[in-house]
């Protein structure tokens, strides 16, 4: 950035940094004006939040403890644009370097073609920041070729191709690098081969004994991106099936990995040894979670569990035990694939394109549908328990399946069940068909089709129309359920590589939509 010189001294310095807004990083220009008159005082303007305001005290001590001196006269620091709220502690390093350059301790032209982010400790050492990946992506978009970040965030930021990322461990090291006293090699970008090697899972569907009908439903769900509700007694394998579901999904593409990693990075949940998430996320929040914890919230807004599950799986075990208000916030994200959090001063939109897998027992004691155990629950208790899950939410879950107890013969069998690799091959073949089908539109899976697209891609024969009409009348299905049946039938036909939906595809799809009429009656 440029600078203005007064009386042969650099007095006004500008440098690039970033502020987080949701999961995006917004460019911010730091302007430091060190006057040569007035009492020692640092004034920070430009809508900084409390964390940024407090950083002045931390910065002053870090500068002194690193062997430099603070400006001895009045200093004004402006964070532009002035109407953008500035958040997080990543302003420490750019503000420190601006003060040093404004007081003549660093050449101001050293910041040309650089952006700087980082948090400082009182001794001048660097601390990791949130959102380094988003900042690196914005730096590339803005045409800034070089980025200085804390050493712990360097591998994360280096994921972005075409950007030279320089790691620094302290303020003094950053100053020495900018003055040309030491050389720091940029972090090499992530190897694509390494990314592919990390995309492995420890779990496999072959671990699940029996439950072939449930595996079939999971295959259909994975192929078309459908949500699943599992109902069954305790210990029948509902959690095992859910935890292995992501192993049959296609591997994360690099674009999907960047989207998901940005969310984890902004939330501060990205592990230091994981610069890029190579596997699909699996989120399993406890049933005591609050509405903001699930959907996102706070001030400024932070992503919730449904955004952390973006491009992956959100598993809600014991669904009726969740707060009714909490699970009702799932309605809009399940339809739209994103969630918007509005606050008085800021509105943030977070991606939330996940597959929901929910599990519950058929009654409070859990043994209502178990032929080997006696259910002790009264009809009133059962009704009260099942009604904790609303009809509108159930209507948004595509596939409803019953997971019965597994008999001893299947449990003791030495033969391996269907493996994740075998199921994934079927899923990939079906998704290739969908990729070609939706190549000219924004959606990717059958589950995302609008009503108009359902009409276009799910034509029915007269026989199929008669089957669906009967099901609608007998089971009292809604218009939403009508479209969901057709989407599921379309996916089942894709799994068989058939261009048209047949009666058997429709019959199977209808069976996935009738369980709620049995258990919620």
Plain-language structure description:
The chain is an alpha/beta fold and 521 residues long. Helix content is 38%, strand content 17%. It contains 22 helices and 19 strands. The strands form six sheets. A five-stranded mixed beta sheet has the order 1-2-3-5-4. Strand 4 (41-45), helix 1 and strand 5 form a beta-alpha-beta unit. Helix 7 crosses helix 20 and helix 20 (479-495) packs across helix 21. The radius of gyration is 28 Å and the shape is elongated. The model is unreliable at 4-8 (pLDDT under 50).
Supply the key terms.
about 40% helix; about 525 residues; 22 helices; about 15% strand; 19 strands; 5-stranded parallel sheet; alpha/beta; 5-stranded mixed sheet
Summarize the structure.
The protein has 521 residues and is of the alpha/beta class.
Number of strands: 19
Q: What overall form do the CA principal axes indicate?
A: elongated
Ends: how far apart? Answer: 69 Å
**Largest beta sheet, briefly?**
5 strands, mixed
Report the C-alpha radius of gyration, rounded: 28 Å
Helix segment count? 22
Unreliable sequence segments: 4-8
- Return the structural class: alpha/beta
The neighbouring-strand order within the major sheet is 1-2-3-5-4
**Helical amount:** 25-40%
Mean pLDDT: 90
| Percentage of β-strand residues | 15-25%
- Name the quaternary structure: single chain
